[in-house]
Amino acid sequence: MTKTLDVEGMTCKHCVMHVTQALKELAGVTIVQVDLATKKAVVEGTNLDDSAMKAAVADAGYEVVAIH
After folding, report:
1. How far apart are CA 17 and CA 37, in angstroms?
2. Which domains are delineated in the chain?
3. Contacts of residue 29, Cβ cutoff 8 Å, sequence gap at least 6
4. Rounded mean pLDDT of the chain?
């Protein structure tokens, strides 16, 4: 399963690292790719929970505005 998250608030490579780490810590997540230019995070894994991903990104200080 692959989901794409639109993330607001990222401004630098450190932001990308924070979002990446927050998502990698979630159960079922196998791959995370965060792109600063497009403000998107692509998450691959099994049984991905939208609310858990939103919460993890929020805890890191950013906002998920959409999940595709």
Report:
1. 14
2. 2-67 (3.30.70.100)
3. 23, 43, 44, 45, 48
4. 97
